[in-house]
Specification:
396 residues; alpha+beta; MetI-like fold; four-stranded antiparallel β-sheet; 11 helices; 8 strands
Length: 396
């Protein structure tokens, strides 16, 4: 028996403008053309303005003589050095305060974050007061506080605070002995590198041995002994090829030794304490995210509290801590640009400040400065993401 067909008659595809895929593609093309035109207009207008003012674009200025002094340099620099040299010095100073700040902020954050969860009432309240105070005061205000209210209130060089007649603290910073390497000292850094590699290999061996036999080795103490002992043995075996340049007060200032500027100390303290307050909350939230049954199981097995925290709680909490801590590291690196407020010679103050004012090459200098911060941030994110990938739970 034949039944009537219930299917509707096929209709044509209709006009293209009714097709959602075609409309989406058309909108994307229009937006791309508009964006490209806007960028082209900005570039063309900028070039016209620069040409009207007699400013030529390019990076030829990098080979010109800078002619100004820099208070702190990690490499050799004189007034006759080039602007390219000022870029390198500013970059190194930025990396210096960023690395020091990340290390100190991480230590402060973990200590305070764990202290906030301490059963000791006083310790927990002190940690809470620290977090609530320093994370709610603007970073710039903290930098100015440490610089003007604390470090600038120190005595003059003639009335310096002295320790062992070798370390001097005054309004111009911390002056300490300067180690001068002699012939044969090059073997010590290589010994340190070998010690680090040997420690890593020993840690891998100890982990595999524990997985196979259940017996743990004191990796930390043995590794510390290797890292410290091997370079010391090589150092003294080569006749201790190191001499010290001692600071001496001559006139109104010290000569010899290393002078750590108060600007560096103030910026480092402010960045470390400010970022450490945020990391403390991140650590606390990470520890609280670990199920309480984990600590109860450890107690039932009579595992000491310190080992429970180090071997059970923290490794699991790191999966929550690392992504948030990465953002704080990036914030610290970018916040280091506030150094210009107190005259610390970082990349912004030296290159995007003095060099820009002298050369007028605003586009090239600002573009290079932004590119540096972008590359540093992407590098830190990449390394932290690699570590985070290793801490993630692996499904079986």
């Amino acid at each position: 028996m034949l039944r009537p067909s219930t299917s509707l008659p096929r209709r044509g595809h209709g006009p293209l403008w009714r097709n959602p895929a075609v409309r989406a593609l058309f909108v994307q093309i229009v937006l791309f053309v508009a964006l490209a035109g806007f960028i082209g207009f900005l570039v063309h207008n900028t070039l016209l303005n620069l040409d009207a003012r007699g400013i030529h674009t390019g990076f030829g200025f990098m080979d010109q003589r800078a002619g100004f002094s820099i208070s702190q340099t990690l490499i050799e620099y004189t007034n006759s050095s080039t602007y390219g040299r000022t870029f390198v010095i500013g970059l190194l100073n930025t990396l210096l305060v960023s690395i020091l700040g990340i290390i100190a902020a991480t230590i402060i954050g973990f200590v305070v974050g764990i202290a906030r969860l301490s059963p000791n009432w006083l310790l927990a309240r002190l940690a809470t007061v620290y977090v609530e105070i320093f994370r709610n005061i603007p970073l710039l205000v903290q930098i100015l506080f440490w610089y003007f209210a604390v470090l600038r209130a120190l005595p003059s060089p003639r009335q310096s605070l002295s320790l062992f007649d070798a370390f001097f603290v005054n309004v111009r910073g911390l002056v300490m002995p300067d180690p001068q390497p002699l012939d044969g000292f090059a073997a010590t850094p290589w010994a340190l590198l070998v010690a680090i590699i040997a420690t890593v290999l020993f840690a891998v061996f100890a982990k595999r041995r524990q997985m196979a036999t259940g017996k743990a080795l004191p990796v930390y103490w043995i590794g510390l002994a290797i890292i410290i002992g091997l370079p010391l043995i090589v150092f003294f075996a080569t006749g201790a090829p190191l001499e010290w340049s001692m600071p001496e007060l001559t006139g109104f200032n010290f000569r010899g030794g290393i002078n750590i500027l108060p600007e560096l100390v103030a910026l480092w303290l402010a960045l470390s304490i400010y970022t450490g307050a945020f990391i403390a909350e991140i650590v606390r939230s990470g520890i609280l995210s670990v199920p309480h049954g984990q600590t109860e199981a450890a107690r039932s097995l009579s595992v000491p509290g310190a080992i429970t925290l180090r071997k059970i709680v923290i490794p699991q909490a790191m999966r929550v801590i690392v992504p948030q801590m990465t953002s704080q590291y990036l914030n610290l690196i970018k916040n280091s640009s506030l150094a210009t407020a107190i005259g610390y010679p970082d990349l912004v103050a030296v290159f995007a400040g003095t060099t820009l004012n002298q050369t007028g090459q605003a586009i090239e200098i600002i573009a290079m400065t932004m590119a540096v911060y972008l590359v540093i941030s992407l590098t830190v994110s990449f390394l932290m993401n690699l570590y985070n990938a290793r801490t993630l739970l692996k499904e079986r």
